[in-house]
Design a protein that fits this description.
Radius of gyration: 19 Å
Order of helices and strands: EEEHEHEEEHEHEHEHHEEEHHE
Number of strands: 14
CATH architecture: 3-Layer(aba) Sandwich
Shape: globular
Largest sheet: 10 strands, mixed
Structural class: alpha/beta
Length: 342
Amino acid sequence: MIITVTPNPAVDRTYEVGTLQLGEVQRAAAVYQDAGGKGVNIARALHLYGVDTVAVFPAGGASGAELVTMLRHLGVSVVSIPVANETRSNITIADDGGNTTKLNAPGSALSPEAADTLIEAVVEQIRMAKQRGTKAAGSEAPVQPIVVGAGSLPDGTDPAFYARLAQAAIAEGALIAIDTAGEPLSRAVTSGGLAVVKPNLAELTELAHRPLTTVGEVVATSRGIIGQGNEGIIGQGNEQVLVTLGAAGAILVTADTWWWAGGQPLTARSTVGAGDLTLAGYLAAAQAGADLPTALQIAVAWGRAAVLEPGTRIPAPTAIKVDQVQVVAEPDPGTVLDDSRA
């Protein structure tokens, strides 16, 4: 079971245009509407690929009801926490040149009571998953539930939310993956015990407080994240850092080694949600028993397929081209990151 937690979900509306012309009236060639937010995107992908998952998030107003309806129509299991404020809507404009312009609403702050209820709902889902005792193929050991805390926090929400979520999940015997940015990411990393930390390059650079232009700089910063949790509340270091590099692929770092994965250039239709699909693919492969380089290869294949879809549409299983992704163990640390590859 993979439980996704999205504190700031959205209804995503994508408009495709030929060439975006600022200040001009333009007609969209196509319009798409999807259930959105990082954790929601991950849950949608996992469900489509047959992975047992549930999406946990706050929902308010007409947009919140619309979000729940869209997910249930897709067959995704939902646990929605009622809140007073309207769930946000986001707008994406994608042009024929592969450029994506995204306008994200800030979302309404989660009250302390709503945040507590969200975490309590996750704990309940972990307990239910453990009671079911699902076993991996060919194994008598039960599959350890994974909790994924993903996305921004609504403005005004306690930045320690993800750290608190991690503490609650770990206390219940679940693994925890975090995909966020800024202070919420820093707080969670410092608290420790994270199985997977999934920043993109910009988010990792923000944590490092300096530019990161080479593989070695990304690896060194990621190693710092792994060790940072040792003195935290959990009392144990973070385990893995999965850094998405946009068109340059992804790097997976552990305390002992690292791998890069990527492929030949693609013409992106929309880059929104590609990182979410990368994390979804990684967790799905890892929970199914894949070794780390194979899980990374599958993850990048999922992300590459996502950029060929409009908006935040989930690519069909036939679109996943794992054989087009190369994995390199411990590439030269001096290699300059090249975003012409993906």
